[in-house]
């Protein structure tokens, strides 16, 4: 039975760090407010020459190095992003070119903060369907470009960055002991569109637009949606929270993460938190958090890892994998 196993991981962050205190004087806010409401202490902000494509390329190269592979070994690139370099072509194709790849195929996925969970699920299906053997799954974002820097209720929340995985076809027994992607559940509901959206686009305003959010409304729905989709994933895999080694959630807000983990009965020491360092990097947040926990030796080969995300749309989903 074909499985998609993780062969390598990498990440990339813009050089510039913006601390909470750097907002004081820009908008009416404080380090204390931001830390207390979100857990965020700093975020990375892209310079003009740092784009979704350059950050994605750097993360992809790091994941390939980690895997001991070159771009010649990859046959598909799936890029999760809501901040592409251009409306078209897909930024995945630009990354493909930057990697010197002129074979295989590449496309973008747009599911906002759930993008990476959607992209891993999609890549897994391409591998199991026999259409690809090795896939670069990238989450890369430059949300700083779509923020309204005068809106204190949103501009303090987001950051830029990228993370990438190399997924590879391998034989498995078809049991929970296999390495690789074991189960996934995806959801969306467009009835919630106006709670978190960008107020521009090529087919409406002809502008790029800015991120708009009813933060309290998003918060209200987040924990229920996240825990529902995780319980569905546990059910599909036949496991409970106790079986998990690591919980790697989307990093939007520490209060949402803590409340979700508590409701699911996931012990605090199993939860990977990077929102304090990166802010909300949308589709890049899960691979950045994974990358951090692999680099510092927490996540090891054979560990059972749960990924989860929720974002604009709403979209939400979870992926269970054995590292
Ligand atoms: N600094 C100081 N005060 C602020 C700031 C700020 N940066 N932002 C808002 N406030 C004020 C508000 O104006 C309000 O003042 P008022 O009472 O005088 O009107 C007060 O703080 C409380 O505002 P709320 O919005 O009710 O604050 P809340 O406790 O809900 O926290 C937050 C706001 C952090 C945005 C919270 O609602 C949240 O985390 N929501 C979820 C957001 C999220 O996770 N989004 C990402 C989803 S993923 C994606 O797809 C991008």
Automatic annotation (TrEMBL):
Keywords associated with the record: Acyltransferase, Cytoplasm, Fatty acid biosynthesis, Fatty acid metabolism, Lipid biosynthesis, Lipid metabolism, Multifunctional enzyme, Transferase
Catalytic reaction equation(s): malonyl-[ACP] + acetyl-CoA + H(+) = 3-oxobutanoyl-[ACP] + CO2 + CoA
Gene Ontology MF annotations: 3-oxoacyl-[acyl-carrier-protein] synthase activity; beta-ketoacyl-acyl-carrier-protein synthase III activity
UniProt domain Beta-ketoacyl-[acyl-carrier-protein] synthase III C-terminal: residue ranges: 236-323
EC number per UniProt: 2.3.1.180
Region (ACP-binding): 251-255
Active site residues per record: 113, 250, 280
The keyword Oxidoreductase appears for this protein: no
Subcellular location: Cytoplasm
Domain of life: Bacteria
Free-text note regarding domains: The last Arg residue of the ACP-binding site is essential for the weak association between ACP/AcpP and FabH.
Name of this chain's protein: Beta-ketoacyl-[acyl-carrier-protein] synthase III
Lineage start: Bacteria, Pseudomonadati, Pseudomonadota, Alphaproteobacteria, Hyphomicrobiales
Gene that this polypeptide is encoded by: fabH
């Amino acid at each position: 039975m074909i499985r998609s196993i993780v062969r390598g991981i990498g990440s990339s962050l813009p050089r510039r760090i913006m601390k909470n205190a750097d907002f004081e004087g820009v908008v009416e806010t404080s380090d204390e407010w931001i830390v207390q409401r979100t857990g965020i202490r700093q975020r990375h902000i892209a310079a003009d020459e740092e784009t979704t494509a350059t950050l994605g390329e750097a993360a992809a190269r790091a994941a390939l190095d980690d895997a001991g592979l070159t771009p010649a070994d990859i046959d598909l690139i799936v890029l999760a992003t809501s901040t592409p370099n251009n409306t078209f072509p897909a930024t995945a194709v630009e990354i493909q070119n930057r990697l010197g790849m002129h074979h295989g195929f590449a496309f973008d996925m747009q599911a906002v903060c759930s993008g990476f969970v959607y992209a891993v699920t999609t890549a897994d299906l391409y591998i199991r369907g026999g259409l690809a053997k090795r896939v670069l799954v990238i989450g890369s974002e430059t949300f700083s470009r779509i923020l309204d820097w005068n809106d204190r209720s949103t501009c303090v929340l987001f950051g830029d960055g990228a993370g990438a995985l190399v997924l590879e076809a391998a034989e498995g027994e078809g049991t929970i002991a296999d390495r690789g992607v074991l189960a996934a559940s995806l959801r969306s509901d467009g009835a919630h569109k106006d709670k978190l959206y960008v107020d521009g686009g090529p087919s409406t305003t002809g502008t790029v637009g800015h991120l708009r959010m009813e933060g309290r409304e998003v918060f209200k729905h987040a924990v229920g949606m996240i825990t529902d989709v995780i319980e569905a994933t546990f059910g599909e895999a036949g496991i409970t929270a106790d079986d998990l080694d690591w919980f790697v959630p989307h990093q939007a807000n520490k209060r949402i993460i803590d409340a979700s983990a508590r409701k699911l009965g996931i012990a605090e020491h199993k939860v990977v938190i990077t929102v304090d360092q990166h802010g909300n990097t949308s589709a890049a947040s899960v691979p950045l958090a994974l990358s951090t926990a692999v680099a510092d030796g927490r996540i090891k080969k054979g560990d059972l890892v749960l990924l989860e995300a929720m974002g604009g749309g709403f979209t939400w989903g979870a992926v269970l994998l054995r590292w």
